[in-house]
Amino acid sequence: MINTPDPTKPPRLLDQVVSRMRVKHYSLRTETSYVDWIKCYIRYHGKRHPKDMGAAEVEAFLTHLAVERNVSASTQNQAKCALLFLYKEVLGVDLPWLDNVTQAKAPKRLPVVLTQSEIQAVISRLGHCH
């Protein structure tokens, strides 16, 4: 017997997410990533349906990622984008700005600067290229 969706039941949440992402022409990699983050969020909150949760639960999850899981800032931001997509595009809920989220630490990148002597060494070698 083939499993066909019951037209009397609304589509499952993750099917709705995928459908909405495809309408908006998101890439397959983004689709996969967002679905994974949404599943992780739902599991983190004891499999509660996202429609029964809101900004406080999103903030708690994103803070958990930064503090307990020690994810990078870009990873935390990707999870945040996935959840904002879920709430705004699928559930039709605008979450207030998430002020109470502990932000993951962005890596500090030191600029690479050559010393004057290193610059002189580079310039002096430029004339030797024929």
Describe the structure.
The chain has helices spanning 13-23, 28-44, 55-67, 73-90, 116-126. The model has no long low-confidence stretch (mean pLDDT 87). It contains five helices and no strands. Helix 2 (28-44) packs across helix 4. Helices cover 54% and strands 0% of the residues. The longest helix is centred in the middle third of the chain and has 18 residues, at 73-90.
Tags for this entry?
130 residues; mainly alpha
Ordered list of secondary-structure elements with their pairings:
Layout: H1 13-23, H2 28-44, H3 55-67, H4 73-90, H5 116-126
Helix pairs in contact: 1-2, 1-4, 2-4, 3-4
Q: What is the structure about, briefly put?
A:
This protein has helices spanning 13-23, 28-44, 55-67, 73-90, 116-126.
Main pleated-sheet profile: none
Query: How much of the sequence is in beta strands?
Result: under 5%
Find the structural class using helix and strand composition. Answer: mainly alpha
The stretches of 5 or more residues where confidence is low (pLDDT under 50) are none
* Strand elements, count: 0
Helix content: 40-55%
Kindly state the mean pLDDT as a whole number? 87
What is the alpha-carbon Rg in Å? Answer: 23 Å
Report, as a whole number of angstroms, the end-to-end distance: 75 Å
What characteristic shape results from the CA principal axes? elongated
Number of helices: 5
Reading the helices and strands in chain order gives HHHHH
